[in-house]
């Protein structure tokens, strides 16, 4: 009798013929350390030794199985690369086909003239020959040859010196002998979605019983895959809500938004809120009135008015004498927020203070004292706000701008300076909804998708490197005649030998002495000291600089209404969402704005990607396309550490299931029906730092 096997068992503990120390080592080198890893080691593809056809009835580019007789064979080396190459002419009663195997010399003695074989592969025309290249081959006895009807063979990712046949047998053995093998969600959920048993899911994904099921698996529409995908997402969100429930469900003092406050809001704003701003703000107010704690992420495209919404959301707390803090990732952005908020709150008589790394020592001491005593009600700052010296008297509302630019611990330090304050996180980076829900799982989510009326679309024009002089002439003309300012953005500060890219320093020197020699130019980049950057930006905002050469340091936060031209060099080196962010720096006024994307050596796919920028200004649509093209990891960048490691789920492909799993997990946790048993195991499994 076989010993029962558990999902958490290490593979070296399994008694199975051929699973010795050497094989265990090779499997572990592929990341297959436990039984669970092997069960989720799904086939790369399937060889369909079915769909038998006669040669004459096949079509080019069709996957088929053929029962053929070998007429002749020839072993040689390819003309250019000298790769071992076996060619065979085979036939059935309807015609001939050439079979070609590269780099498989072991087949030479096995394939014999006059022998009958079964081959599976894709038919194609090659050098005027109708052929199959590297087909799967089966050698059968005469009786088997006539009787074979259907065989679907799983093909796994190759592991050195571990055969596909061995993996098939081992995984089949584990599916049959692993106990228990139950879903982590309740039976009522399984019944609701009509999911099969978990063991059946593994069995039918590894060893599908029909071509129809193979097609469903290839499209990720198989019910067996859907059940495992749902379970993985459910487990993830169950952990998210279990670990944050105590914080997120804390009851707060109800705050009611009366008519007097609404009238005051109307009186302090020099413009009317958009319908989207009103909707998002009213949804936030409803949370306050119920006495619930606000933990919300609001996305808004560049210029959508998120800052206004955040200030108006905080206003009821300011009126009650509580403290509000807004943290921004850069000093430039913090200063801009400070000026904007100061303008909004001017009529209320509530002063706003700014705390950054460059704040003088004397001013810092004054601010520390004011925050601790409670005299200062609204503070805007950078990372300086999370320093130990900063102590609040009654911090009840925290606004985190560009949330993803801060580490989890940094955000938590600020939040813990208050008594479970409300948290409103903002981002101008358009992150697709399901990605945002996964990254910020326990945050409620909302988005402001419309922009204030009256703004014209930025005209986006793609230019090849050889035509860049046309752009330079246009920029010069607009600066001289219309007094329009421009940004020039580069991927690098200095020239790199490793990367053949245009640098900000190189172009600044070149263009300042040629095309723009009688214009006022300057440069800004991340390596400059904060005060130097501030000085340059101040001069640019005051119109003392015509053209600002920059790296992506100006990606967020800079607001210069007269800067209506942006030239992005080596645009193909930027992600679509980053290009969109950069483009959002212009077109802030009523004048027509222009964005030029100068590109080098574009392949077809790269051109399609860049072309999206000239077709739409919808940041959310651009983000969806960017995510599809680059995948979540590259889309978020290497600095983003919050993305969980899923075995089978895909947050873009499985968007509908992400929402369903999240809602059901939240319901079970908050109603006390289900909770996470092992938080450390969960963190290890998903590699997730809660955000």
UniProtKB/TrEMBL annotation:
It catalyses: ATP + H2O = ADP + phosphate + H(+); Couples ATP hydrolysis with the unwinding of duplex DNA by translocating in the 3'-5' direction. SMART domains: DEXDc, HELICc. SUPFAM superfamilies: Nucleic acid-binding proteins, P-loop containing nucleoside triphosphate hydrolases. Keywords: ATP-binding, DNA damage, DNA recombination, DNA repair, DNA-binding, Helicase, Hydrolase, Isomerase, Nucleotide-binding. Residues 470-628 form the Helicase C-terminal domain. Residues 287-448 form the Helicase ATP-binding domain. Its EC number is 5.6.2.4. InterPro entries: ATP-dep_DNA_helicase_RecG (IPR004609), DEAD/DEAH_box_helicase_dom (IPR011545), Helicase_ATP-bd (IPR014001), Helicase_C-like (IPR001650), NA-bd_OB-fold (IPR012340), P-loop_NTPase (IPR027417), RecG/Mfd (IPR047112), RecG_dom3_C (IPR045562). GO terms for biological process: DNA recombination; DNA repair. The keyword Nucleotide-binding applies. GO terms for molecular function: 3'-5' DNA helicase activity; ATP binding; DNA binding; hydrolase activity. Belongs to the helicase family. RecG subfamily. Plays a critical role in recombination and DNA repair. Helps process Holliday junction intermediates to mature products by catalyzing branch migration. Has replication fork regression activity, unwinds stalled or blocked replication forks to make a HJ that can be resolved. Has a DNA unwinding activity characteristic of a DNA helicase with 3'-5' polarity. This is ATP-dependent DNA helicase RecG. It comes from Thermotomaculum hydrothermale.
